[in-house]
Each structure stands twice: as structure tokens, then as C-alpha cells.
Amino acid sequence: MPTGSVSWLYYADRLMELPAGMLGVALGTILLPSLSKYHADANREEYARLLDWGLRMTVLLAVPSAAALAVIALPMVAALFHYGRFGADDAWMTCRALIAYSIGLIGMILVKILAPGFYARQNVSTPVKIGIVTLIATQLMNLAFIGPLRHAGLALAIGLGACLNAALLYRVLRRTGIYVPQPGWAVFLLKVAAAVGFMAIVLFTTMGESSWWLSAPWQRKVPAVLGLVLLGMLAYGACLALFGFRPGHFSRRGAA
Questions:
Q1: Cα 209 to Cα 204: distance, rounded to the nearest angstrom
Q2: Residue 2 CB: number of other CB atoms within 10 A?
Q3: Cα dihedral sign for 171, 175, 177, 181?
Q4: What 8-state DSSP symbol labels residue 182?
Q5: Between helices 88-103 and 151-175, what is the axis angle to 10°?
Q6: pLDDT at residue 255 greater than cutoff 60
Q7: 81 Cβ partners below 8 Å, 6+ apart?
Q8: CA 155 to CA 161: how far, in whole Å?
Q9: Would you state the pLDDT for residue 73?
Q10: How remote is the C-alpha of 188 from its chain's centroid?
């Protein structure tokens, strides 16, 4: 890989870890104690309902986060890092890694939601076995992607590995009957997809030319990227509200 690849991956990882840490860790911390309580009470219905709530919250928050990371990757990288010896080529290479990471962001967060479904039942061996399978698959994808995609291939392999990990955890939960999806998932996914699509279009059409982001001073770039983030949140929230979503619909009381 060319010189600078490690730095490009590092800076992209910093941006990807912000939503992964805030959403994944927070939701996982909320779920585990309640799941343990429902398991101790042998309340399988509430156990499944709480897992369902966690998955819906993940989709509701992680999907727009991943889309925003991919669409406004250059504005964020330029506003935060494009100074001094961090040149335009570094910004573009970091953007490539960030877009690759964003593909797997949903999987990374889902793992933190699905794994407590096993830990609450004192089942550690299954996530470990799935983790070993995921590790092997990730290394194989590294070998496959590093040639054509260079450093972005490593980021893509990590993201796809996380998605594989989440898919295997979900499959076991469904197969064993631990998790049973609540009604309404199809409509829910369609509405979220439409809202995310609208947000992505708004961000793409308003973020401006890449040359501006690579030449403007930080005093203009930082407020501009904050404005983009706020605009994306407003566009996504307004679209969800138009579809009938209300904050109370996602209260934990509705699932606990």
C-alpha cells in the first residue's frame, strides 16, 4: 500500500467510531440489564419485544448515519483534517476509506445489539464461535480487496465482516426462537429507506463543489459542515414525521 495508508484508515476510523460508539454502546448498555431480567423471569415475550425495539432503534439511527458518512465524507474530512501537511490527496484517500467503512457501520452497531441477546442468557460461546468465523472471513476479504482497492479494501473488509457477524448472530437468534420479529417491519423499513434517500439527496445537492471544501479556510468549512449535519437531521426528521413517526413510538416503555 502507498505511504499514508495507515493514517488514512486511522482518520476515517475516527469518524466512523463516533456513531458506532454513541449508538452501539449506548443501546447495548441499555438492553443488557433488562434482557437479563426478562431471562431470569422466563418472560420470553418481553425478551423478544425488547430485542425488537433495539433493532428498530438501530435501523432508525444507524442507516441515516451511514448514509450521511458516505455522502458528505469529503466535507467532514476537509473540515476536520485538511490542514498543514494533510493535503488534498490525503483528504480524498481518507474519504475512500470512510465510504468503505460506512458500508459496514450498520453491521458494527447491530453486533452490539444482538450480542447482548446471548450474553443475557449466559451464552458466551455462540458469539465467540461466530466471531472466529467472522475473523477468518474478514482476513480472506482483506486478501481479496487489498489488491484492487488498496487501503479502502481493508476498511471494506472490516465493514463486511461486521455485517456477516451481525447476520450470523441474527440467524441463530431467529432459528432458536429467542427473537421473534414484531409485526410491521416491512412498512417500517420502507419508510426509513425513503427518509434516508430524501436526506441523501438533500445533502448531495447542497454540499457544493469539492474544490471549495479543499480550498476554503477552516473558519468557513467548520460552520458549513455543521450546517450540513443539521440540514440532514432536519430533512430526515421531517420526512419521518411526514410518514407518521413520532418520538413516543420509540420510547423504551413501549418495548419494556
A1: 10
A2: 9
A3: positive
A4: P
A5: 10
A6: no
A7: 11, 90, 91, 94
A8: 10
A9: 97
A10: 18
Phi/psi-derived region of residue 184, left when phi > 0, alpha when psi is between -120 and 50, beta in every other case: left
* Cα–Cα distance list, 119 to 20, 35, 39, 53, 227 (Å): 20, 9, 10, 17, 40
Nearest by Cα to 119 from 178, 32, 177: 32
Q: Of 42-56, 166-180, 190-204, which gets the smallest average pLDDT? A: 42-56
Q: Do the beta carbons of residue 24 and residue 107 sit within 8 Å?
A: no
Q: Assign 253 a pLDDT band (cuts: 50, 70, 90).
A: low
Please, are residues 199 and 239 in contact by the beta-carbon 8 Å criterion?
yes
Say whether 143 sits in a helix, a strand or coil. helix
- How far from chain centre, in Å, is Cα 112? 11
pLDDT of residue 256 exceeding 60, the answer is: no
Task: Return the amino acid letter for 79.
Answer: A
- Mean pLDDT computed over 11-30: 86
Query: What are the phi and psi torsion angles at 104 (to 5°)?
Result: -100, 5
DSSP 3-state assignment of 208?
coil
Interatomic CA distance for residues 82 and 12, integer angstroms: 13
Where are the domains positioned within the chain?
Answer: 5-254
The single-letter code of the amino acid at 44 is R
The CA–CA distances, whole Å, from 8 to 76, 150, 154, 233 equal 14, 11, 11, 27
State the pLDDT at residue 104.
92
Would you call 244 exposed, middle or buried from its count of C-beta atoms within 10 A (0-12, 13-18, 19+)? exposed
Q: What is the pLDDT of residue 254?
A: 44
